[in-house]
Amino acid sequence: MEAQKPTATRPSAAKPQSKSEGSNVKGIKNAFLVILACFVVAVCLFIFWFGHSMHFDEGGHPQDLWGTVYKGGVIVPILQTLLLTVIVLSVERWIALSSAKGKGNITKFVAGVKACLKKNDIAGAQALCAKQQGSVAAVVKAALVQYEEMDKNTVLSKEQKVANLQKAVEEATALEMPSLQQNLPIVATLTTLGTLVGLLGTVIGMIKSFQALAQSGAPDSTELSTGISEALINTAFGIATGAFAVISYNFYTNKIDNLTYAIDEIGYSIVQTFQATH
Question: For the purposes of burial, counting CB atoms within 10 Å of the CB of 226, is it exposed (0-12), middle (13-18) or buried (19 or more)?
Fold first, then answer.
């Protein structure tokens, strides 16, 4: 009877983290709820604070800045909603990217992992990941797990091992990147939308001003001033929303680029170390 030949089992490629684990970046998943909450707050402010009688005289003329803002008309709550949304999402991204960064300095962490790899101290590198936490550490941890598996594997060729290791880094990175960039497209949209809505309010205010000037006889000074106030208030809110959104978007995009660079650098180092030592 012919003896059965043992069949070599091909180990599977690196598996991405399960959905139950999810990304290490904590943030608001549903931005629609943020926009809705900001709209409710904006409407309440417009009606109960800006429109309060204490901000107007008996003739209905505004006595302070809040009353002047109220004269901006119905576009003001919309612009306030956009501005509040930018502020809330900016704070949310600050918290989320702080969690993605981890507990220590990214540069020192990358240098420490590289030093461990040079000494082939995988356990030490994993300990650094456990201490650091965050997105960069999560990618490195996934790569190190695959590194150990490929190190013990005696079936695959060196090229196959390197390919599996690269795939592990790519999959771990792909899991983290969407969470890093979450809600930033909305902030980017508000850079233009805020300005356009402010321009709409400006045009509406100017139309009212020209209507007051077009009346027969002496123009109604109250209607004229109301139209000008509406135009200027909406212009100010629109510019403020657009400017803040641009600053926020560029600031957080730069932070994400720095995290991505760190992930690429350490991933490349892990693959290169494996190639050089195996």
Answer: buried
Separation CA 88–CA 116 (nearest Å): 40
The secondary structure of 87-131 as a DSSP string is: HHHHHHHHHHHHHHH-SS-HHHHHHHHHHHHHTT-HHHHHHHHHH
**Closest Cα to residue 210, out of 197, 223, 196, 229?**
223
Q: What is the SS3 assignment for 278? A: coil
Q: What is the value of pTM for the model shown?
A: 0.81
Beta bridge partners of 62: 56
* Per-residue pLDDT reduced to its tens digit, 194-223: 999 999 988 888 887 777 777 655 666 666
Q: Alpha carbon of 190 to those of 10, 141, 163, 210: distances in Å?
A: 50, 36, 41, 30
